[in-house]
Amino acid sequence: MSVVRHIAIMGCGQLSRMLALAGMPMGFQFSFLAEAGEATQCISGFGEIVTITDQSPAELFEALGRPDVITVERESVNVPLLRELQEFCPVYPDPDVVWAIQNRHREKTLVSRLGIPLSPWARIQDNDPVAEAVKAIGGLPVVIKSTEDGYDGYNQWVAETEEDLKAFDAERTKLLQQVVETGKGINEWIVEKKIAFDREISVIGVRNKQGDVVFYIPGENRHQKGILKSSIVPAPLLSDTLKQKAEAYITCLLKETNYVGVLALECFVVGDDLMVNELAPRVHNSGHWTMDGAVTSQFENHIRAIANLPLGETSMHGVAGMVNLLGFKLSDETSAPVQLVGEKAHLHWYGKSSRPGRKLGHVNIICDDEQALLAAIEKVEESYS
Ligand SMILES: Nc1ncnc2c1ncn2[C@@H]1O[C@H](COP(=O)(O)OP(=O)(O)O)[C@@H](O)[C@H]1O
Ligand SMILES: [Mg+2]
Fold it and tell me: Residue ranges of the domains in the chain?
């Protein structure tokens, strides 16, 4: 196996930044592929940034400085381009897996095929009657999600009543009109049963090319308006049965897809059952605590996996929490809130400009016990909101 020294990442956001920050101490060089108009502040000064225009894949590979491996920081990437780049160096995770996960219909088809439980779902395209899909999955309430271009709760509609379905239909008419006018946009959705879950958890797993698999202790995630607000690890009240299920599902997904790199799995806890909500073929916000709370961070383990290195220990000391710092007003609050740094609190600031709801940074808190952790999380949330 060839030695990896140079890693190129498709995407220039905070996940790329944290991947590069994890890889640099091991001596890796980085370069980045940006879409036209993509913000690149997060990785400014970290390596060559190549903006995709009309270059051939060979020209892009050269411009990136002939990387030894290419990876991604998000699922909504140009998969045909990734496939073409595979001619020049390995791309991990495999573009076919990214392709499967970047569309909710293909993602749910994959998870169902592996016999892993999901919320009942049906697909609608164009003007397919939404009422029939709702009936097929057992009636209201439902959550309707575009199959692509949805993240942090965008492009989702919760329908509790017939009226809500009508509101969705009105919105859909506008979206379909946009597709007619511009040739692009949203024309496919997943209708899924709204689950009255007890809690949301996630589990993060890693697999390298040799097939070694490790995973982190599952954490509980709290969302606000569809955006992750905080995580607590280990997930409080998670029974051994549920933990084992989460570990079995992530292991199955990693092995069955021949996955290389970090894969995240978001789940709903319903009694003693676990239902998969979605997958992310990349490092994940709910795993940011690992930067300070685990022996090896998810970022370092992703780099190790794609660089053919042994995976690092994933065990943790104490309990860990992560609080996202979301932009809350259209002001110039771009300087790091260093007042959040504390004895047990570690600030990670991404250097982005502020927009309401935008992820600007996060604070990791590592404590000896859960009570102290919850109090510390509350303190951060109160002083940054
Ligand atoms: N079927 C569902 N039932 C109940 N809540 C849901 C359902 N689907 C999504 N949600 C809520 O919305 C959040 C965001 O949905 P998700 O599918 O994870 O999309 P995103 O890609 O935006 O993260 C979830 O974390 C959960 O809180
Ligand atoms: Mg999600």
Answer: 6-91, 120-193, 199-383
Supply the residue whose CA is at minimum distance from atom 11 of ligand 1: 226
Fold of 120-193: Dna Ligase; domain 1 (3.30.1490)
Cα of 95 from ligand 2 centre, angstroms: 21
Distance in Å, CA 278 to ligand 1 centroid: 8
Ligand nearest to the CA of 286: 2
pTM over 0.85: yes
Q: What is the CATH number of domain 6-91?
A: 3.40.50.20
What is the CA(226)–ligand 1 centre distance, in A?
6
The Cα 350–Cα 209 span in angstroms is 30
| Proximal ligand: closest to the CA of 277 | 1
Q: Which of 147, 157, 277 to mutate to test the pocket of ligand 1 (most atoms within 8 A of CB)?
A: 277
Which residues does a 6 A CB cutoff place in the pocket of ligand 1?
119, 143, 145, 150-153, 192, 194-195, 200, 223, 226, 266, 277-278
- d(CA 15, ligand 2 centre) in Å: 16
Per-residue pLDDT of the chain (385 residues; tens, 9 = 90+): 689 999 999 999 999 999 999 999 999 999 999 999 999 999 999 999 999 999 999 999 999 999 999 999 999 999 999 999 999 999 999 999 999 999 999 999 999 999 999 999 999 999 999 999 999 999 999 999 999 988 888 899 999 999 999 999 999 999 999 999 999 999 999 999 999 999 999 999 999 999 999 999 999 999 988 899 999 999 999 999 999 999 999 999 999 999 999 999 999 999 999 999 999 999 999 999 999 999 999 999 999 999 999 999 999 989 999 999 998 765 556 789 999 999 999 999 999 988 888 999 999 999 999 999 999 999 999 988 7
